[in-house]
Amino acid sequence: HKSFEPRFKKNVATLIDSLAFGFTHLAHFGLLYRNGNWHLMLVPAVLWILLIFISGLLFNFCKIKTGSIAGAILSHAAFNLVMNYFIFFHLLR
Predict the structure, then answer these.
(1) What H or E segment, with its residue span, contains residue 71?
(2) Which residue, among 25, 69, 19, has the nearest Cα to 48 in the 3D structure?
(3) Nearest CA to 53 among 27, 89, 19, 7?
(4) 37 phi and psi, to 5 degrees?
(5) Residue-wise pLDDT tens digits, 21-64
(6) pLDDT mean across residues, the chain
(7) Which of 89, 81, 10, 18 lies closest to 50 in space, CA to CA?
(8) I want to staple 12 with a disulfide (CB 3.0 to 4.6 A). Which of 6, 8, 53, 90 is the partner?
(9) Integer Cα distance of 26 and 33 in angstroms
């Protein structure tokens, strides 16, 4: 995030950073390697990128409010914990 701030306003840097965060998580959902080929499931991929983009904005907000990256790390860990809980204890039962 800090590398974008000298070139862009803080809000634009936050949007770029959150969008990059969303795209880096595309491999978790929406992009499949099957039968030797990559397949993009467009609708799930777009929804996933949007969810992770919003999460990135939330993590940035937590970093700003706590004045430390620890706020973003803790909120990311909580997000992952809740997401895994619902996947493994509710969706896959």
Answers:
(1) helix 69-86
(2) 25
(3) 19
(4) -130, 150
(5) 999 988 888 888 889 999 999 998 999 999 999 999 999 999 99
(6) 90
(7) 18
(8) 8
(9) 12
